[in-house]
Amino acid sequence: MTEPTLSTRSFRKGLLAHLILVPAWTASPVLLIGGLVSAGAPHGFPGVALSLGLGAGLVVSSNFKQRLPMCIALCGLGAAAPSGYKAVASVAAGVVSLLAWLCKGGKSDFARRPALWEFLSRYSKDYYAQAELRGKLSDIQKEKSCFAFHPHGCLSAGFTINGCYNPEFGRAAGKVNWLCDYNLRYKNPGFRWKCDAVRRDDFAINAADKKTFQRLMASGENLSLIPGGFQDAVAFEFGKECTVLKRRKGFIKYCLQYGYRLHPVYTFGESETFHTFTGLRRLRMKISESNVPMVAFFGWPLLPFLPRPESRILTYVGAALALPHIKEPTNQEVDHWHGEYMKALTKLFNDSRAEAGWPSAELEIA
């Protein structure tokens, strides 16, 4: 694929790419919550409480056989609404039921759309003032490598734009499995459609669950993840360089068990993509431990759910930390290599910040 020059950049197509990427993640949760509230609201507070309870059941269920009784109950709730509200409540219940069916365990995988991957990988970075992949690209190997991206930010621009949909990363690393939250991957219909649509023989977005980790690592496939997860998103503050890592050790243990090389990856400018609500941090952090993204954000004033297009996102890949192959690592061994990884991440940050344009930035590891 030909790399775009300054003269061939297209902000309009970059904007269109983001109007595909971002709503694919955000639209389904909004429709779900809105549909549940609309279906129950005609019955007052008890109706809303009941509909939200049914919604929680839909989220934790694993297949449509389990979801069907809850969908029937929700549709019944909508049909029982007073005549003046029945149409809206019934449509809302129908929308929620459709979302439930589109999750994994309902509809089969969506069809691949090669043209979509080509479009996103070609134009998504044109949305930003600058989006580049830098660092130790020559140190990357095409097997048994794990790439740990920091920070998560609100919508993971570095992970998504400079990593996932960057052909340069693919050329350096070969096939990479991009891992994300299981519920996001399989229980968010919009995101699931997008992930299924862009799947290729050399590219896949998978769930970051234990079973997937072990399956991929047993076969030596490269993988990438954001260790801080949704807690990283809660810690996000505009202009502040922070990542949640001190208690995130599972990926270290897996890398030890399978003898993987581990690359720290840091994105400068991620912290300037959105403004966020920063209050109630302790409560939001606690809730996020259950993989619930407790984030409220505001980006581009024209379309606040999109990142600020004037942002510069520069992603640096650090040199690999060669972990030993220890089939059953002790807690002490995991702690040791976790400490070594934090040192490697801090070194990458300090060595790259001046070149990136943030010479006085300081990294906080929470």
UniProtKB/TrEMBL annotation:
A cellular component annotation (GO) from this entry: endoplasmic reticulum membrane
GO biological process, any: glycerol metabolic process
Species annotation: Alexandrium monilatum
Transmembrane segments: 15-37, 44-64
Membrane topology: Multi-pass membrane protein
First and last residue of the signal peptide: none
Name this protein carries in UniProt: Acyltransferase
Keywords, in A-Z order: Acyltransferase, Endoplasmic reticulum, Glycerol metabolism, Lipid biosynthesis, Lipid metabolism, Membrane, Transferase, Transmembrane, Transmembrane helix
Family assignment from sequence similarity: Belongs to the diacylglycerol acyltransferase family.
Domain of life: Eukaryota
GO molecular function, one term: diacylglycerol O-acyltransferase activity
EC assignment: 2.3.1.-
Involved pathway(s): Glycerolipid metabolism; triacylglycerol biosynthesis; Lipid metabolism
Cell location: Endoplasmic reticulum membrane
